[in-house]
Amino acid sequence: MPGMLPVINRECVAQAVRTGLALKAKINCRSTFDRKNYFYPDLPQGYQISQYKSPIVGEGEIQVDLTPEHSIRVGVERLHLEQDAASRCTTSRRR
Questions:
Q1: Number of compact structural domains in the chain
Q2: 41 SS3 class
Q3: What is the tens place of the pLDDT at every residue in 38-62?
């Protein structure tokens, strides 16, 4: 609806925090959303709402077991929430 403000999905926030805890990441008490302005066919408003500068989850890491004796740690820069741009799906059926 025109003029409506976006509302954050509580379950998405909960899942982001759970994922951040699993990554041993910093959970930020304050996060902000910004507009990414670009043309995208499925975003009629001309921008996407996303977290970049102040994401909900900061730096973390995940351990990857390569063999039973050898594992590596992979750093994660951020985990952020953003507006789902959906996807444009066109199909043509030939009969």
A1: 1
A2: coil
A3: 776 777 677 778 888 899 999 999 9
